[in-house]
Specification:
Two copies of one chain form a homodimer. By secondary structure, chain A is mainly alpha-helical. Chain A has helices at residues 17-30, 43-50, 54-66, 91-100, 104-128, 131-148, 154-168, 172-175, 177-193, 203-214, 218-246; strands spanning 70-73, 77-80. The first copy, chain A, binds a DNA duplex through helix 3.
DNA sequence: GGGCATGTATTTATCATATATAATGCTTGG
DNA sequence: CCAAGCATTATATATGATAAATACATGCCC
C-alpha cells in the first residue's frame, strides 16, 4: 500500500469515509466551488486532492450522479450537471444547498411547496387520520407546549408536528416532505433566530390546525395550515428583504 | 481475469453495465423480490448471481443507497429500507414503482401532489411568466393540437405542456416535478389507453389554462389547471375501481 | 445463574492495480 | 476533402489484499 492517506485525521462526519467524501463533494458542488456546467477534476486528480482511494471516490461520485449533480462519460470526463437537473427534492441536496449556500430565495421557493402541499395534507388528515396518526399529532403538539416552557426543543417539536400531519394525510408523497422540511426548518431557524420580534409560529396557531383535524373539518384544517404557511413565508420574505437591503450575511 | 462474465449477452439497457445492474436491482427491490425490511444477499452472493464484478455491484448498491432503498453496514449486511424511507420523489424510484408494480393507488397519490402543485404553478406562471416561458407554453399547446391531428405524440406533448407551466412558475421545486410527471404520465397512459371513452384531457381544456396565463389571470389559471387535475384524478379513480372490481391486471 | 470481558467470525469498507471500453481527435491514404 | 484507422485519455470493470465494524459465542468472575 503506497498511498499515504489522511484517514486518521478525519472526524466522524458520516458513518465512513465514502460518506465524508460524498458530503464534501456535494457541498463543494452546490456552493459552486467547481462552477456549474463545468468539467470536474478527473478521478485520479480528485483522489490525490482528497486523499481517497479510487473505490471511495467512485462510489461517492456515483451517489452524486444518482442525485443528479454529476454525469460521467468515458473519455469525456465527469461534468457538473446544470442546476435544473439536480434533485432538489433529495433531502441531502436540499440540505447542502440551504446549509452551505444560504439562500432566502430558495427557502422561499421551498415554502411555496409547503404552501401548496401542507394545507391539503391537513385537509386529508381531517378526513382520513386514524387514531395512531392523531396520537402522533397530539404528542407533537405537547412537545411544542413543553418547548414553550423550555422543556423540549422548539425546532424538533415543530418539525414533528408538521411531519405528523403529513403522515396523517395517508399520501406517501406528502410524507416524503419529512426530510425536506427537516432540512429547511433547521436552516430557516438560523434566519429567524437572529431577528428580534421574529419567531416561529405560535403554539396556539398550531393548536388550531390540530383541533380542526380532530374535529374532522377539512376546510378549517386547510385554512389553519395555510395560515401557518403564509406566516412562515412572510417571515422569510422580510428576512430576505432585510438581507438584500443591508447586504448582510446570515 | 478469471471471471467468465456475461457481458456479451446484455442488450444496451443503460449506458453501461453498472446502470443495468442499478435498474435491475431497483426494479427487483420495489417489486418486492427481496421483501422489504429484509436482509439483502451479500456482495459476493449478488456478484455471482448477477455476473457482475464487485466494483459494478458496489457502485450500483451505493446509488440505491443514495435513493433511500438500501442501507449497508459492515458485518451487519445490506438491508432493504422500509418503504417510507424510499425517495419517492426521485424519478428513477417513481418510475420503477409505477412501471413494474403498477399501482393505481400510488398513481392517485401522485396525482394528489399534482393537484396541490400545478394549480399554484399555473397561478405563479400567470403572474411571472416571461416571454420565453410563454413561448414554451404556446409551443407545447401547438404540439398538442398537432397530436390531435396525428402529427405529434399526444403523450410527449401533454408532458411538455405541463412541464412548460411548471417551469414558467419560476419555482425550482415545482420544475422538479418534470421528471416525476414524465414517469407518471407514461404509466397512466397505459391505464387510460385501455378503456373506451376514456382519454386524456382535451386540448381545449389545456387551452383555457394557457389563455388564463397569457391574460395574467392567476385565479383563472389556477382554476383551469385544477379542472385538468380533477379530471385526471377522476379517470384514475374510475380505473382503480374497475380494476379492483374485476381483479383485472393492467 | 447472571453479567461482563474477550475472542472470533463475517460482512462491508477501503486500498491498490491491471485491464477493458468508449469517445474524441488526429492522421493518413484515397 | 473526406473517411478509415490509429492514438489518446477519460471512465468502466475486474480482482486481490487488507482494514474496520459488530453480532455472536465463549468463558470467566462473582
Amino acid at each position: 500500500m503506497t498511498n499515504g492517506n489522511a484517514r486518521g485525521l478525519r472526524h466522524e462526519m458520516g458513518r465512513n469515509f465514502t460518506y465524508e467524501i460524498l458530503q464534501r463533494l456535494g457541498v463543494d458542488i452546490v456552493t459552486g466551488t467547481y462552477g456549474v456546467g463545468n468539467p470536474f477534476p478527473t478521478e485520479a486528480e480528485l483522489c490525490k486532492r482528497l486523499g481517497a482511494s479510487r473505490s471511495v471516490l467512485r462510489e461517492a461520485v456515483k451517489m452524486l450522479t444518482a442525485k443528479g449533480l454529476l454525469k460521467a462519460r468515458p473519455r469525456q470526463g465527469t461534468w457538473i450537471e446544470p442546476e435544473r437537473n439536480w434533485n432538489l427534492l433529495d433531502p441531502d441536496v436540499l440540505y447542502w444547498l440551504l446549509e452551505r449556500k444560504f439562500s432566502p430565495g430558495l427557502l422561499l421557493e421551498f415554502t411555496q411547496v409547503r404552501l401548496a402541499i401542507e394545507p391539503m395534507a391537513a385537509a386529508l388528515a381531517a378526513r382520513h387520520a386514524d387514531a395512531k396518526a392523531k396520537e402522533a399529532i397530539t404528542a407533537a403538539l405537547n412537545r411544542m407546549k413543553a418547548a414553550e416552557a423550555g422543556d423540549d426543543d422548539p425546532l424538533t417539536s415543530d418539525i414533528a408536528f408538521h411531519v405528523a400531519i403529513l403522515e396523517a394525510s395517508g399520501n406517501r408523497f406528502y410524507a416524503q416532505l419529512r426530510g425536506l422540511i427537516e432540512a429547511a426548518l433547521r436552516t430557516s431557524i438560523r434566519l429567524t433566530n437572529r431577528r428580534k420580534g421574529v419567531r416561529l409560529a405560535s403554539v396556539a396557531d398550531h393548536q388550531q390546525v390540530a383541533d380542526a383535524i380532530f374535529a374532522s373539518d377539512p376546510e378549517a384544517a386547510s385554512a389553519a395550515m395555510r395560515h401557518l404557511m403564509v406566516e412562515a413565508m412572510t417571515l422569510i420574505e422580510q428576512a430576505k428583504e432585510t438581507m438584500e437591503a443591508t447586504g448582510e450575511e446570515v
